[in-house]
Design a protein that fits this description.
This protein is mostly beta strands and 291 residues long. The protein has one domain (8-23, 45-287): Jelly Rolls. The protein is built from two helices and 19 strands. It has helices at 154-157, 258-261; strands spanning 11-15, 18-22, 48-56, 70-71, 82-84, 92-95, 98-108, 111-115, 117-119, 129-136, 143-151, 164-169, 177-183, 195-200, 209-215, 219-224, 227-233, 248-256, 273-287. The strands form three sheets. Strands 3, 5, 6, 7, 8, 10, 15, 16, 17 and 19 form a ten-stranded mixed sheet that branches. Strands 4-9-18-11-12-13-14 form a seven-stranded antiparallel sheet. Strand 1 (11-15) and strand 2 (18-22) form a beta hairpin. The chain starts with 10 loop residues before the first strand and ends with a strand. Residues 1-33 have low confidence and may be disordered.
Length: 291
């Protein structure tokens, strides 16, 4: 993304390249974590097929499945205005087969704005994957929804060395434009070198669209409704350029304001705003044996 974003264990408060990093202990992923870190092709051009390995279809009611999702909690990054709540149904719940992340201006426990950020860290992590998220976005001036990934080694190397994959970002003051970006030590916004692209999307706040990334050992490609609009090719094995040969975890959040989302202010009249997620599907590449 244009601005760095962090899991609360490693909170990074960022504004135009100025960052304060706060480190604390992190529990390693348990043996149940979903990953395919051993699923590495014997050669770059090895043929493969995508196989479904993890999914949440949201075919239940109530809070998000705690075996799959955890919560960020508090004020996290980017001078954003929202307080991310934990296990509060007004901010994150499943209804009628859809995850709803609701952003509110409700003065909850003294916090003017509340929202939710769900992640899979320590529960599901992947090295190379195809990730599909079918979603309908919130909108209005000040909203900043995202679907993105961070390297699980973030507590050891920090951002941007851990790598970041932004599958979808949108800001409410520019509602028809959806962005994809990658961030690495060599390519990131603080140096003016980040790599990405954007695409005009038909009413993403009124219609569901499918946001997809295909992450492979030699490239990362981004799609909206099957239309490819950005690819980042592996230029070298230097981890400053390509930190993507390691596990990453997934984050889905709705921010309010901040150094990008709040560039043109926040319109209080838009709340509450709902971010709908129909499903999240993760496929692993299964490499075929040479004949």
């Amino acid at each position: 993304m244009i601005l760095c974003k962090f899991f609360p264990i490693i909170s990074k408060f960022c504004y135009i390249g100025t960052c304060i990093l706060i480190l604390s202990a992190c529990t390693p992923a348990d043996s149940s974590s979903q990953n395919n870190t051993d699923n590495v092709p014997p050669s770059p051009d090895q043929k493969f097929v995508w196989e479904l390995s993890w999914t949440d279809e949201f075919e239940y009611e109530g809070l998000p499945d705690s075996t799959k999702w955890s919560y960020e909690n508090g004020y996290i990054r980017n001078n954003e205005l929202q307080y991310y709540t934990k296990r509060r149904s007004k901010n994150a719940r499943v209804e009628k087969g859809t995850l709803i992340i609701e952003s509110r201006n409700d003065n909850y426990n003294g916090h003017s704005y509340t929202s939710a950020s769900l992640h899979t860290r320590n529960k599901a992590e992947w090295q190379y994957a195809k990730i599909e998220v079918r979603a309908k976005l919130p909108s209005g001036r000040g909203m900043w929804p995202a679907i993105w990934m961070l390297g699980t080694n973030i507590e050891n190397v920090g951002w941007p060395a851990c790598g970041e994959i932004d599958i979808m970002e949108n800001v409410g003051f520019d509602p028809y434009i959806v962005h994809a970006n990658i961030h690495t030590e060599a390519y990131n916004h603080t140096k003016g070198t980040n790599k990405g692209n954007h695409m005009t999307v038909d009413a993403p706040y009124e219609k569901f669209h499918t946001y997809t990334v295909e992450w492979l050992p030699q490239k990362i490609s981004f799609y909206i409704d099957g239309n490819q609009y950005f690819t980042f090719n592996k230029e070298s094995s230097d981890p400053d350029v390509w930190p993507f040969d390691q596990p990453f975890y997934l984050i889905i959040n709705a921010a309010i304001g901040g150094a990008w989302g709040g560039t043109e202010g926040v319109a209080d009249s838009i709340f509450p705003q709902k971010y709908y997620v129909d499903y999240v599907r993760v496929y692993k590449p299964t490499w075929k044996q040479e004949e």
